[in-house]
């Protein structure tokens, strides 16, 4: 699956020729855009995408699309799958966004970490579901300003672990991990991956993209970095690896980005120059990955990759200080 582009850079992600695979015109009811989606493989083998859908009021909700091959033939719920529940959860009054889905075998349920948006800002909310029809909401588990969260699929010791991205006014936006005995009460907060400073592609603001991938070598993290340019923000993807049993310990981090906006549907849209994945699926071989990403905050696209290929790239190009000498 590896190759090189015309500039000699290794290609780790291959865009699907049918991109974009989902747009607002596919929706069974009027919407403005459909983009950042969580992903899961259902028990019947179908791929489910839980998409962020922005309606024409500007607020977002979540809607599920299902496909046999994960590319085409999408069956989209005829009405919103998960709407903001403002009466019980007022933190959702301005919408719910950017879901990341983790299947938790211990619970036999899917955990959905999503962003809830209100007057207080952006916070991390959590919900559980068995069927993507009904949802048990836990409410806000990380208060504003916080987003880009995903649950690890198993406990670390006796505690659940959540990766997320709080923001402060003086330190920037970095990736943290927090632990909980019950999915409701969170503590032991630790900063695990810091945005670099200066001219780096991932300076000042980074965040988790899809949920971490458990491998024999460690937790493989695909994260986004935001570069501020004269014409606005530029979102691209990088790689890092964390210890399996102590996931706050970074083992390797690449210095260069590995996937960024190139095609017209990624360059032009409601928010230009954005590739923003929130979900992936793995084939039965445990290696072939379908990465689902929002393109320009307007549509859903897909790229294929190899988990082994990403790990091999990190072994060759990553460094164990995880960027600490990169001008933080």
Tell me the total number of β-strands. Answer: 25
What number is the mean pLDDT?
94
What is the overall silhouette? globular
- Main β sheet profile: 6 strands, antiparallel
Q: What does the oligomeric state look like here? A: single chain
Tell me the span between the first and last alpha carbons: 34 Å
Percent of residues in helices comes to: under 10%
CATH superfamily: Glycosyl hydrolase domain, family 43
Low-confidence stretches: none
By CATH, the architecture is named 5 Propeller
- Number of helical segments with 4 or more residues: 2
Kindly list the characteristics that best describe this protein.
25 strands, 5% helix, mainly beta, Tachylectin-2, Chain A, 2 helices, 48% strand, 6-stranded antiparallel β-sheet, 5-stranded antiparallel β-sheet, 328 residues
Report on the structure:
The chain has 328 residues and is mainly beta. The chain has a single domain (36-319), classed as Tachylectin-2, Chain A. The protein contains 2 helices and 25 strands. It has helices spanning 264-267, 307-317, and strands at residues 3-4, 10-11, 14-15, 33-41, 47-54, 60-67, 75-76, 96-104, 109-118, 121-129, 136-142, 146-151, 160-168, 172-173, 175-180, 187-193, 206-208, 213-215, 218-229, 232-242, 250-254, 275-282, 288-295, 299-306, 318-319. The strands form 6 sheets. Strands 17, 18, 19, 20, 21 and 25 form a 6-stranded antiparallel sheet that branches.
């Amino acid at each position: 699956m590896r190759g090189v582009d015309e500039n000699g850079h290794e290609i780790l992600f291959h865009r699907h020729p049918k991109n974009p695979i989902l747009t607002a015109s596919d929706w069974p009811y009027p919407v403005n855009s459909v983009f950042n989606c969580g992903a899961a493989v259902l028990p019947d083998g179908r791929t489910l995408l839980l998409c962020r859908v922005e309606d024409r009021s500007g607020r977002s909700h979540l809607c599920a699309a299902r496909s046999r091959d994960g590319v085409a033939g999408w069956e989209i719920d005829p009405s919103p799958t998960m709407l903001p529940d403002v009466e019980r959860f007022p933190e959702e009054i301005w919408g719910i966004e950017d879901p990341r889905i983790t299947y938790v075998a211990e619970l036999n349920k899917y955990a959905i970490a999503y962003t809830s948006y209100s007057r207080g800002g952006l916070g991390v909310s959590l919900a559980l579901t068995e069927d993507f029809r009904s949802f048990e909401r836990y409410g806000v588990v990380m208060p504003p300003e916080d987003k880009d969260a995903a649950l690890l699929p198993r406990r670390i010791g006796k505690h659940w672990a959540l990766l997320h991205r709080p923001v402060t006014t003086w330190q920037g936006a970095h990736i943290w991990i927090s632990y909980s005995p019950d999915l409701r009460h969170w503590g032991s907060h630790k900063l695990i991956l810091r945005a670099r400073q200066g001219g780096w592609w991932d300076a000042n603001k980074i965040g988790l993209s899809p949920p971490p991938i458990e491998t024999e070598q460690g937790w493989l993290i695909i994260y986004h970095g935001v570069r501020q340019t004269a014409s606005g923000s530029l979102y691209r993807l990088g790689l890092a690896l964390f210890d399996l049993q102590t996931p706050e310990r970074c083992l390797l981090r690449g210095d260069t980005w590995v996937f960024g906006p190139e095609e017209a549907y990624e360059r032009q849209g409601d928010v230009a120059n954005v590739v923003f994945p929130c979900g992936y699926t793995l084939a039965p071989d445990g290696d072939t990955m379908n990465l689902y990403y929002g393109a320009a905050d307007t549509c859903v696209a897909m790229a294929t990759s190899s988990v082994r290929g990403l790990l091999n790239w990190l072994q060759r190009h990553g460094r164990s200080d995880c960027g600490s000498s990169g001008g933080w």
